[in-house]
Amino acid sequence: MITDSFDTQSRPLVSLQDIYGEQQHLAELCIVTFSKSIYDTILKEQDCEKIAQINACNGVFPIYRFCRNGRRIAFYLSPIGATMAAEDVIEVNWLTGAEKFVMFGSAGSLDYEKTANRFVIPTSAYRDEGMSYHYAPPADYITVKNSAVIRKAFDELNVPYVEGKVWTTDAFLRETAGQAAKRRAEGCIAVEMEIAGVQSVCDFYGLELYAFVVTGDVLSSDGYSRGTLGDANHNIDKLCLALELADRI
């Protein structure tokens, strides 16, 4: 099987030092958002400065920094999907020195009764993507290590939440009825596109990921509903929680 052929042991042929030079130390923590609306809100409401950029043939992607309670916090707008989201975490760590990443986004609900009107704290992620197998031994699930830290913070803030497994897949148009039924039977309560890949690179490089999601659309045994997808994508409450969480880690 191809999953048995990934090499997590030998040295890479390309390093970020070859591309960017020496690692920088410009921030302690980084906030990762997938919402352009939330990203624009941070730029508008915080005293931000551009500190670095990710260079690619399809454009330049800036990384900004602001200060909160004496801490230097970086942030950027992440691409969607496990491969690029995880790759950007690696590059942002090199470009800024940030070792803690607070990441929030939206997800599809696999169990509406459990997830409705609650934040979802992932405890493990089903690895239905390719990125994680380059950074962790083959397995069906990867543990989302800092779920207990988020649970403690949400308890202190009196935030409604539910904990559970999530299903990470890059192929959202192949979230089939059969696959959804299997994941649901294993205890998955939501489906999203990044967490397994990002957690794997954080584990590999000794970084800390703090991830939570909000469900919007619903994948039930009867079909699909867009639900509150727009609100789940862009609701500013996620940013407020991310900032509170940043104060506690």
What is the overall number of helices?
9
Largest sheet: 5 strands, mixed, barrel
Helix content: 25-40%
If you compute it from the alpha carbons, what radius of gyration comes out, rounded to the nearest whole angstrom? 18 Å
- Label the overall shape: globular
Report strand order across the widest sheet: 5-9-8-6-10
> Uncertain spans, ≥5 residues at pLDDT below 50?
none
Oligomer: single chain
Order of helices and strands: HEHEEEHEHEEHEHEHEEHH
* Residue-averaged pLDDT: 95
Strand content: 25-35%
Our measurement of the CA-to-CA distance between the termini, rounded to an integer number of angstroms, reads 40 Å
Summing up helix and strand content along with how strands pair, one would put the structural category as: alpha/beta
Number of strands: 11
Describe the structure.
This protein is α/β, with parallel strands linked by helices and 249 residues long. The chain is 33% helix and 33% strand. The protein contains nine helices and eleven strands. The chain has helices spanning 16-20, 36-45, 82-96, 112-115, 147-157, 177-185, 195-205, 229-234, 237-248, and strands spanning 29-33, 49-56, 59-68, 71-77, 100-109, 119-128, 141-143, 161-169, 188-192, 208-220, 223-225. It has a five-stranded mixed barrel with strand order 5-9-8-6-10, surrounded by four helices. The chain is globular, with a radius of gyration of 18 Å. It starts with 15 loop residues before the first helix and ends with a helix. The mean pLDDT is 95.
Give a topology summary.
Elements: H1 16-20, E1 29-33, H2 36-45, E2 49-56, E3 59-68, E4 71-77, H3 82-96, E5 100-109, H4 112-115, E6 119-128, E7 141-143, H5 147-157, E8 161-169, H6 177-185, E9 188-192, H7 195-205, E10 208-220, E11 223-225, H8 229-234, H9 237-248
